[in-house]
Design brief:
- The structure is a single chain.
- Helix 11 links the parallel strand 13 and strand 14.
- With 436 residues, this protein is of the alpha/beta class.
- It is built from 16 helices and 14 strands.
- The chain is 46% helix and 11% strand.
- The protein has two domains: 344 residues, Divalent-metal-dependent TIM barrel enzymes (TIM Barrel, Alpha-Beta Barrel); 57 residues, no CATH class.
- The strands form four sheets. An eight-stranded parallel β-sheet has the order 7-6-5-14-13-12-10-8.
- It binds D-xylose and nickel (II) ion (2 copies).
- The site of one nickel (II) ion has 4 residues, from loops.
Length: 436
């Protein structure tokens, strides 16, 4: 195959003054922020499915994208996608990629044939990894596209489909191990319902938990050391998905004794579909110590579906990086661009523009967030807001040293509480704007 992105050079950092479209104005991989190079903070990843599989079709029209890696023979197309993916990652200077089993290799007539196809392509991926040093941020199994998963995978009423899903996860996890993936994602694409009239919700949730327990056991059995993540999403394709948001995932993990084995992969567009902001989901995960990784994209608040646009909103990127930095940054996780180009952006070079802009947006968000933190512009205010809890009565309550009767007695004697202080919402918004 000819090179997938002809004429595109390795994208270089040129600084904020550069007017060159395919240059980084802010992402300078070696520049240190809070004591660590930007590349280690951001840990960018290319999403195989959107970049190399999604041709731009929608319910009203067919594929538009020019995909030089396409071929009538699906296995040849799969081979071509491998080189295209590594060419893109190298030209962008991205260290990671993410994929579903079915993104990289087509299904055969039987599970055995399917696994053979996968093994052939994984050998090519391993060789490209060896050549470039690029590795998977995470792998996953596609348990939603094939019609066999019409009723769900782990939550299917058909036990054989559950078994098929288990077989697919086992294989995908072995592939993740072989390729040295840093993690493995569970996104419950069809783990939900269309109608409660035909659904035994309690039983489905128990089955989902069983599948995840089996995955944990298998992980230990094969010695895969990557981090497990659940990716919350409330709807689409189903009417309701059980992993609807970070709080629902956390409740599920706690109920079934799975918390220690999982973190969350928070996706920006899924947060807004759940009626939350991206930062809310990140904060909730961080507050409960289950923030693991991020699918960095952007929705359209006027539309009610997962538009998966490339993230270019500086406010959003800044807010996200504030939470990620204060949570201590990524360890196994990173920023995976779970995003596709617009249907009308059909040339291969559009994919490069899209990634360059998204990487720059997060680099800028990182620098702005670090500057806000360096000045203590928000932290000091927040800390001070809770000062009544640092000593005296507040500290006693926090320590569990006061009964409700004692508090009633205290307030009866005092009569009225100490005066409240202003929340200064607008002042804080103005402070953040001053850094942008
Ligand atoms: C779909 C999800 C999916 C996961 C991986 O909405 O974002 O792409 O990231 O299965
Ligand atoms: Ni995603
Ligand atoms: Ni999504």
């Amino acid at each position: 195959m000819d090179r997938a992105f002809p004429g595109v050079e390795k994208v270089a950092y040129e600084g904020p003054e550069s007017k060159k479209p395919l240059a980084f104005k802010h992402y300078n991989p070696d520049e240190r922020v809070e004591g660590k190079p930007m590349r280690e903070h951001l840990r960018f990843s290319v999403a195989y499915w959107h970049s190399f599989c999604n041709g731009g079709d929608d319910p009203f029209g067919t594929e538009t994208r020019q995909m030089p890696w396409a071929d009538d023979d699906p296995m040849q197309a799969a081979r071509n996608k491998v080189t295209a993916c590594f060419e893109l990652c190298e030209k962008l200077g991205v260290q990671f990629y993410c994929f579903h089993d079915r993104d990289v290799a087509p299904e055969g007539d039987t599970l055995a044939e399917t696994n053979e196809n996968l093994d052939e392509i994984v050998t090519l991926l391993a060789a490209e990894q060896e050549r470039t040093g690029i590795t998977p941020l995470w792998g996953t199994a596609n348990l939603f596209a094939n019609p066999r998963f019409m009723h769900g995978a782990g939550t299917s009423p058909n036990a054989d489909v559950f078994a098929y899903a288990a077989a697919q996860i086992a294989k995908a996890m072995e592939v993740a191990k072989r390729l040295g993936a840093q993690g493995y994602v569970f996104w419950g694409g069809r783990e939900g319902y269309k109608s409660l009239l035909n659904t035994d919700m309690g039983r489905e949730l128990d089955h989902m938990a069983r599948l995840l327990h089996l995955a944990v056991e298998h992980k230990h059995a094969i010695g895969f050391e990557g981090q497990f993540y659940i990716e919350p999403k409330p709807k689409e394709p189903t009417k309701h998905q059980y992993d609807s948001d970070a709080a629902a995932c956390y409740a599920f993990l706690q109920k079934y004794g799975l918390v220690e084995h999982f973190k969350l992969n928070i996706e920006s567009n899924h947060a807004t579909l759940a009626g939350h902001t991206f930062q809310h989901e990140l904060e909730y995960a961080a507050a409960n110590r289950i923030l693991g990784s991020v699918d960095a994209n952007r929705g359209d608040l006027l539309l009610g579906w997962d538009t998966d646009q490339f993230p270019t909103d500086l406010y959003e990127a800044t807010r996200a990086m504030l939470t990620i930095l204060s949570a201590g940054g990524f360890t196994t996780g990173g920023l995976n661009f779970d995003a596709h180009v617009a249907r009308e952006s059909f040339e291969p070079i559009d994919l490069v523009h899209a990634h360059v802009g998204a990487m720059d947006a997060f680099a800028r968000g990182l620098k702005i967030a670090a500057a806000i933190r360096a000045d203590g512009a928000l932290d000091a205010f927040v800390k001070d807001r809770y000062v009544s809890w640092d000593s005296g009565l507040g500290a006693e309550i926090e320590a569990g040293n006061k009964t409700m009767a004692e508090l009633a007695e205290y307030m009866a004697a005092k009569g009225t509480p100490d005066a409240n202080a202003s929340g200064r919402v607008e002042m804080l918004e103005n402070i953040v704007n001053a850094y942008l």
